[in-house]
Amino acid sequence: MKKLLAFVLFGVVLGTLSGLTAFGQAISVNGGAIQGTITDTTGAVVSGATIRIENPATNFTKVITSDSSGFYSFGPLVPGNYKVFVSASGFSALTVDTVIRTGTATSGNFKLQVGSETTTIEVAAGALQVNTEQAGVSDVLTQEQISKLPVNGRNFLDLAQIEPGVILQSGESFDPTKAGYSAISVGGVSGRTTRILLDGQDITDETVGTTIFNVSQGAIDEFQLNRANQDASGEVTSTGQVLVSTRSGTNAFHGQLFGNFQDHRAGFAKLKSFDVPFQRNQFGGSVGGPILPNKLFFFANAERIKQDSSAVSPVGPTFASIFAAHPTIPSPYRETYSTARLDWNGPLHGHYFARINYNVNSVSSNYGYGYWLYANRDNTPGGAFGADFSAGHFTHSFRGSYEKFHNLISDQTSGNSSIYNGIPGFAYYFTAQRLYSGPNYLAPQGTFQSDKQARYDGSWTRGSHNLRFGASVNRLLGGGFASFFGLAPRASIGAGLFTGPTAANPNALGCGGVAGAAACPGDPLRGYHISSMYIGNGQGAFTENPGFGMPNGGVFSWRYAAYIQDSWKITPSFTLSAGLRWAIDTRRANQDISTPSCADVNSSLGFSCTGNLFDQWQSGLGKVVRQPYGNLAPQLGFVFSPGDHKWAVRASAGIFFESNVFNNQTNSRAGLIKAGLFNDEKSLCGGTYSMSFPDGTTVSSVNGTSIQTLCNSTPLGTSAASFIQLQNAYQANTSKTGPLSNGAFVGNNLYANNAYAPGFKQPYSEQWSAGIQRELGKGTVLSADYVHNSTIKVMQKVDVNHVGAARFLNATAARNAIAATTDDAGCAGGASAAAINCAIANGYTISDFAGFGLDSANNVLGGPSILSFGATPNDGAAFPGQNPLLGNGNFLFPVGRSGYDALQIVFRQQKRNPFPGITNSNFQVSYNLSKIVTSAGGDSDQFFVGASSTPWNNDSPTAIMGRASLDRTHQLSFGGAVNLKYGPQIGMIGHFTSAAPTSMILDATNPAGDIFQSDLNGDGTTGDLLPFTEPGDYMHRYKGQTLNNAITKFNNEYAGKLTPAGQALVSAGLMSSSQLAQLGGVVQPITAAPSNGGINNSVFRSLDVNFSYPIRFPWLGESFSLEPAVAMYNVFNFSNFNNPTGTLINTTHAASSAGYINGTNTYAQHETNRIQRGSGTFSQGAPRATEFQLKLNF
User: What is the DSSP letter of 777?
Assistant: First the structure.
């Protein structure tokens, strides 16, 4: 708080001193502005002209004089309609009706005519104008557009959907705490990092992304989206920025009461032939007006959503009986949000305001995981204030705010008879068939965040230069807990089908784990064993710092920023702008703690070293993580608008830094702290058949049954009880051992996971844009822009120990593993060829050999060092990595990158009587032709450290780049409203986009032994890209009808051959290529797609329409009306689908091929992928819904 007060005092002093000598006005994220040059009809500048601007609604007035170059500037100004009065000696007076938009500098270039000063010429500039002052790429949605667009659920971020390059996302798509929220993807990058400002203050969630609270649509005055090269005064983001301004009161009382109603029995389309229960009541209102006319105004808004809803179970046809018994999943939702604001036209020709807001959100959801229900509740109070005033010829703008977010998540499966819960207290899933049963692994958890903000903006003019500058500071606090996997073990059965007898193995296990029995794929409890699993330690902390009244879990950061920007009006038609922004976030990569030393290593491991522990993985990694302080971001741009200023050519380039969400920091911190109780989980099965407890105990069996047997040959319904018992023991051991020994500490397991490399840098983008705007007629503007965004220094996870890499074979460990396997098969001869042949004859496969250690240490050990299991490298994995004494060295390096290129065209019309029979139109059409490529594992969530941070090739992280998951080649979006002269008002929103890309990857659904089947480049990671393809090739170079061409090519050129790991065994004389082939330890052939082709990703199509008819009551006032309306969302009920997984299932797993691109292609499978309503009000692409609306306007 002392730093905040010092910052505010600094801003006041700076502004006061500047005001003594400077002459200028500020334009920033705090509002809008108008600036321009006063000339005569010959183009000569007019200095000393008096310009007065007036807001008729509030009687706010400011007066200024043009300088020696004829230039002037007003700002920041509250968005709205204004009158500009211009007068000068020897010229006729000029009155212009114009508009001020959020974040936009309205053109104020006016020509005066020689004549009598008592003569006044009146001009209407029009609601839509060419932007002749700013080089960036942005658009503004006005209150009129907002009120008429058919937005299902009235979510304020959904307003951006008609902009080019925008894809709406459910906030829940990247974090469970965001159930009931929306997010905006701009330029093919996840909406996690789109920056959102309300009244000039940041309301972005620093923990996971998108907004920290929802805002009622009725409280919004204007909504601006910056798509490229935002103003230097903007906040930290490398993608898009949203500026939202709330409504204020005026000299006239105005308001609205509304009620919206939806019910599944009234105009809803069915899904999977089910009439799914659904009812929503959404109601609220707003009112504003004067407290003291011309001086003090108020505005208040409140809105409530009461939604009782269900979703159709997404379970696939393989488990038809489960779907029949539990066809729907309940998802009730409640939300209340409110906003109140005071505005004051005060001293120093100033405008002052204060705003408070409160949002409470409660929803049942599942994070997209079927029956894994959880309850999510958020509470977010906040407030902001602002002051824009003049001192001498200087204008100051101050902003301050405070927001606090509190989230709680709890499980909703226990005792819930309305959903399927196959094994109470145990979670399992089959991704391809969308079966998820048991407690949600994300519960319980709680998240806290607070943001204290202060900023100052100012400017001054000198000649034809308008110099703007400012600074800001944020005190950001985070905290909470998350006991991942704490309620129950979580198991995958996707590759665990008991196939029953096959030609190669007539005694293969079948239903119930009985040898020779037939398979029962529709029974998850008897027909499957566990293929991989996690169990949690029951703890929820991720940091050692206290926060928000809790003893641990706290994170802290300061954000400092400053900028300076000059707009040089070289001529009345040419503006050159140059700026420099500096911004840093502190402590976002654990820079506040030292990396562990060798002295911190648990002595019982028997690992000796000197110096820093991380240096044992790679020299230099032991240094303290760098805190970036030199984040300087220059900008340069120009606008050329000759003649009558009806067209403009613009170009801009700049650097824009990105932040790092708190979750990235906390997910990498617990492993750095020697003592404490922190969340930790262990992986089992899929090659890992033992685990170490915090007290050093190694466990490889439960009640006398080996974990390997429980994983590989015991039905799920039987083994689950043993794994529940194992988790209980693990949690009890964690609690008993206590905080003195952190089981996740790298010194206890020699496993470095998600640790930041010392050379941390904040990611940034290099943005270029160039385009043209043309006024086609009054109220009609066409824009076309080329936009490029190249983002670099993105965090990517690289295993510097190269665990599993084929070049690091431990021949002794491999020989021991082979001998142990042959012994288990009852074969004499240890690791001899005869013993191996005997095991093959007894039906053993490469998975069996992998289970005894002939595999990557990724599977055998699950990440930790062999020493943490009390064994030696020769008793461990055959492919342990570069240093067999160490576990994985997963460090985060700033080497990732992405690139976005787009042609964006926007046609906008806001006009009265545009065509016969239409009295008013407000319409926008956007087209986006684009491509985004990334090195982030094919994902678009590149700024989150997770699956997307893992490169395609661990040995060369940026060697492979391809289309990101949010890439859309073509996007056509439109929205607006028209008033018919003799009929209703019609509003609509439409979207038509190309299919999403999918990366075609080799089958790695059964991890054990996969390095011999799908690690084609030998880097130790499995599930490689299909050779001869790039990320995202499916739906581009290959589609459903040509998929078999790729499969045939692969099977002819690669199937049956050795991977580098297999070749390493052959070269060492441990196995022959023939033996590996018989074991299945070679590249497996891919199952051919059905005769009707593979499953194509679908295009996206949606059209929302509303019809309303205002009924006016003149005797009650001009603005009084009753407006009934009907809205139909996805009016034509277009079918939209989620995409199948890009895994190309191989012939070994063909029986489980439903849900894969080369799997079952039937109507039933398509219906399983049908998009339906998401959490809260998110419904992009869902089946048709009808809403009945009633508004009372006054």
Answer: E
Q: For 204, which DSSP code?
A: B
Distance separating the N- and C-terminal Cα atoms of the chain: 43
Rounded CA gap, 1084 and 10, in Å? Answer: 68
Contact 31, 76 (CB under 8 A): yes
Can you tell me the distance from the alpha carbon of 318 to that of 67, in angstroms, rounded to the nearest whole number? 77
> Measuring CA to CA, which residue among 551, 324, 293 is closest to residue 420?
324
Burial bucket for residue 712 (CB in 10 Å: 0-12, 13-18, 19+): buried
Closest CA to 191 of 162, 214, 165: 165
Structure-block tokens of residue 117: 């000063």
Tokens of 75: 């700002």
Rounded CA gap, 428 and 716, in Å?
9
Helix, strand, coil percentages (3-state) for the chain, rounded to 5, are 15, 40, 40
Q: Residue written as tokens 């706290």?
A: 554
Q: Which among 624, 660, 593 has a CA at the least distance from the CA of 757?
A: 624
Query: C-alpha 1131: how far from its chain's center?
Result: 28
The 10 Å CB-count burial string (b at 16+, else e) for 745-754 is bbbbbbbbbb
C-alpha 977/C-alpha 876 separation (Å) is 68
Domains of the chain: 31-134 (2.60.40.1120)
Residues 6+ positions from 202 with CB-CB distance below 8 Å:
195, 196, 235, 451, 453, 474
The Cα 1102–Cα 1133 span in angstroms is 8
pLDDT along the chain (1194 residues), means of 10: 43 39 48 86 87 90 85 85 90 89 86 77 75 89 90 93 94 89 91 93 94 94 93 92 94 96 95 89 97 96 96 91 94 96 92 96 93 96 93 83 96 92 96 93 95 93 86 96 95 92 86 94 96 95 94 96 94 93 96 94 94 97 94 96 90 96 93 93 91 91 95 96 97 92 92 94 96 92 96 95 98 97 95 96 93 95 93 95 97 95 96 88 96 83 81 94 94 95 93 96 90 97 95 95 96 97 97 96 95 92 96 85 97 94 85 80 84 91 96 94
Q: Alpha-carbon distance 190 to 173, whole Å?
A: 10
pLDDT at res. 22: 32
Q: Using a cut of 0.85, tell me whether the model's pTM lies above it.
A: yes
User: At 454, phi and psi to the nearest 5?
Assistant: -150, 140
Contact 131, 648 (CB under 8 A): yes
Round to whole Å and give the CA distance between 418 and 199: 44
Rounded-to-integer distance, Cα 889 and Cα 671, Å: 12
